[in-house]
Amino acid sequence: xxxxxxxxxxxxxxxxxxxxxxxxxxxxxxxxxxxxxxxxxxxxxxxxxxxxxxxxxxxxxxxxxxxxxxxxxxxxxxxxxxxxxxxxxxxxxxxxxxxxxxxxxxxxxxxxxxxxxxxxxxxxxxxxxxxxxxxxxxxxxxxxxxxxxxxxxxxxxxxxxxxxxxxxx
Length: 169
Known about the structure:
The protein is of the alpha+beta class. The chain is built from 8 helices and 4 strands. It has a 4-stranded mixed sheet with strand order 2-1-3-4. A hairpin with a 2-residue loop joins strand 3 and strand 4. Helix 2 packs antiparallel against helix 3, helix 2 packs parallel to helix 5 and helix 5 runs antiparallel to helix 6.
């Protein structure tokens, strides 16, 4: 990996919530960043389910199960594309999306019942609160926090600026 930093890729943490329309809107920026940097920029999904969204906590656990089955981002994007449907249908939609992506839907259902990923979601949320995350999406790169829940205007260019500097571009 010739274009990575000596310590590996630059990490962009994204505090996200799968029932959040603002997070769905942020996907364009994430696709552009992924296209620009490839493996030199690691997009790391962090969970920050908001209490106002009833199915967000289950969706965060489902995303972790999808990641465990090797399709984390594909799953996240598929669920974000259906935020209204998630609001209406909840967990049955989460299991259905898993099946549509070729994941083990039965295992997804079991994971939601047994809560095996709750600790990861809770830890992300606690860390987010500790660094001042209040809404989603919120980005953190090189110690700088950007709140995309208020406005995503200009955020991608700021992230690009920092990533370019860190990657020596």
